[in-house]
């Protein structure tokens, strides 16, 4: 039975970062992964360009039952630290809106950088390798792999969540937590499109592909401002993905379709200037025509010449367009979700080291725990930060 100092289950962003840091400390490391190659989620992220971090990162950009938990890791290894590594490797990058940083060429650049960081005599990789059993002895962990059995002093679980099952997502990390008696926050899909009830889905089916800037507010008061995209299944776009991480099934969301405009004053000005113009044609100057037509067909808006609108009509129109309430039927689930909400309860972990409080030598990093970032590079930054921190202690 071969002995290692550290075994890391998962060759994703957090696992590779942890392996590199542990290897630099001279630790003998084995990274195992059930896939054919490392960094599968990195490679497809950001349309193949990888939104690897964000200029503005704080604990406020994460969904976690313990909102203070991410602070220590983010302070120990910040976005600037990872940004420096990217620059050291000469990777071309660009800034997009909201401080998002992307590779100019390919997400492969990030994976290759991490593998070079792991290119140490003490770091070994095994792919297409499943973990079948884990046993804890007094001073080590014994893992049964596909072909042999190995032991280690420190075991790092970097298995990710349940999102994007086609990339090999499994519940292994949660099963390991359960085996060792660790509490888990119920999991659900996050950063995921909404589906609509049949009536709404039919009404807006012809709008697929239309995108408009909006603000969306949940019933709990969480607000995001970004583009909303109509799809053949429901609603998507950055603003929907962001809000989905705070949405509870059964709730309505409040959509401000014209957040940068005072509808009442605008319609009054249009009426004064073009009193014979129809409301439909007037609104088509503010919103996509097909959306206006769909709202008229639903009976939410009644088309008539502007001169026939009384003050009460205009106020009601303003309320409707600034507070368009819609109740999603659900989400598209893990199949298209970018992250998994919930996971290993952070109260079970040290925020300074990622080690479990109950089981010395057992660590959890990345998405497998109850820390989920906003859209915009935050989940990768959590992977870098939590993986780096664990790598200093395993």
Automatic annotation (TrEMBL):
RsdA/BaiN/AoA(So)-like Rossmann fold-like domain location: 5-392
Names of the cofactor(s): FAD
Gene3D superfamilies associated with the record: FAD/NAD(P)-binding domain, HI0933 insert domain-like, Translation factors
UniProt key word Cell membrane: no
Domain of life: Bacteria
Enzyme class: oxidoreductase
Swiss-Prot/TrEMBL keywords: FAD, Flavoprotein, Oxidoreductase
SUPFAM superfamilies associated with the record: FAD/NAD(P)-binding domain, HI0933 insert domain-like
Domain RsdA/BaiN/AoA(So)-like insert intervals: 189-339
A Pfam entry, by short name: HI0933_like
GO molecular function, one term: ferredoxin-NADP+ reductase activity
EC number(s) from the headed UniProt entry: 1.18.1.2
Alphabetized InterPro entries for the sequence: BaiN-like (IPR004792), BaiN-like_dom_sf (IPR023166), FAD/NAD-bd_sf (IPR036188), RsdA/BaiN/AoA(So)-like_dom (IPR055178), RsdA/BaiN/AoA(So)_Rossmann (IPR057661)
NCBIfam families from the UniProt entry: aminoacetone oxidase family FAD-binding enzyme
Descriptive protein name: Ferredoxin--NADP reductase
Biological source species: Grimontia marina
